[in-house]
Amino acid sequence: MTINKHILVGVSGGIAAYKSAELVRLLRKQGAEVRVVMTEAATQFVRPLTFQALSGHSVQFELLNAEAENAMSHISLARWADVFVIAPASANTIAKCSHGLADDLLSTLYLAVDCPVYIAPAMNQAMWHKAVTQENIAKLKAHGVIIIGPEQGDQACGDTGFGRMSEPVAICERILAKPVEQCLQGLRVLISAGPTREPLDPVRYITNRSSGKMGYALANAAVQAGAKVTLVSGPVTLVVPAAIDAYQVETAAQMFETVMAKASDCDIYIGAAAVADYTPITVQAQKIKKQAQQSTIILQKTQDILATVAKLDKRPFTVGFAAETNNLESYALHKLHEKNLDMIAANWVGREQGGFDSNENALQVFWQTGQKTLEMMNKTQLAEQFILLCAERFNEKNTT
Length: 400
Hints:
The radius of gyration is 24 Å and the shape is globular. By secondary structure, it is an alpha/beta fold. The protein has helices at 17-29, 48-55, 66-71, 74-80, 91-99, 105-112, 125-129, 131-142, 168-176, 213-224, 252-263, 305-310, 328-338, 379-397; strands spanning 6-11, 33-38, 83-89, 117-121, 146-147, 151-154, 160-164, 188-193, 198-199, 205-206, 228-233, 244-248, 268-271, 278-280, 299-301, 317-324, 343-348, 360-367, 370-378. The chain has 2 domains: 6-176, Rossmann fold (3-Layer(aba) Sandwich), CATH 3.40.50; 188-397, CoaB-like (Rossmann fold), CATH 3.40.50.10300. The strands form 5 sheets. The protein has an 8-stranded mixed β-sheet, with helices on both faces. A 5-stranded parallel β-sheet has the order 2-1-3-4-5, with helices on both faces. The chain has a two-stranded antiparallel ribbon with strand order 6-7. Helix 1 packs parallel to helix 2, helix 4 (74-80) packs across helix 6 (105-112) and helix 10 (213-224) crosses helix 14 (379-397).
């Protein structure tokens, strides 16, 4: 029971608004006191009277309502809340919050509250995958907002994909759950993320499809688990999560140098970056012109960051990643043993779901004495589960 817990529920416009009625009912059933604010668009999907009956309080949806302001101003309502959850959160509401706009009551409350904020997105799958929406989500995460969902499935418009609002039961459990387990409390975690770029000339470079989303999600999850996190990132368009010491690099050589400078001082190293295996021997000083019918580029191997970290005299608990298009398990196990890693997480790439530049992924995780499958899910949730697994294996190694 969450007796005397004040939960402010924000409902934005979208067909998923009907689910919020069940969320309010579940929260009240657990003993929470609930108040509801709606956007004007949300009132077109569910009438305020429904939420008034379920919450036991009048519903507010006007920013400049004289009667409401006299009874409880939006600042007082913000101070009242122990938790603020926006469910559903439309693409428009997410954009407003991420950019600090305050042109209605809900977005104004987002800026005014000083309590944990949860957002449960709900929108068409194409809108969810739009780059600008993902940038807005990244900004909110960097500001400490906890994102719940969205889930995959059939949508009201007829599309199928990620964008469905999480079920009320799942949202209720997440809101009322104990704080994230501090499984890495006091530990120093070093994470590498993103691609590298290997220059050919001042214009061109060799790179790969990595977006850095998995590595950044791991960094955020490690912070939530209590770790002091250092992030070494290749060139990506993501926002660095709050409370993280970040270093931006471009080439494999720069990433090697930066990681090795930090590795001996960390407890856990997670090599989630997609580091180039080869780099051009010669970088042309001027742009290469299109003249000959064929051109040959001679490449040389880059330094192996994972293997080098694992060979350190004072080595951290070393975790690798393997992105494969075939023979996933055999390649992952070979890499695990050949490089003397403590753990390795393997995932498929080049398929319809998961992999590079996707918001979802699945991992097959191996260690010397076991393995575990983490099914396809949002990378944020996947990162949380993976960090917990890392902590379990780390503690097991250091107590045996």
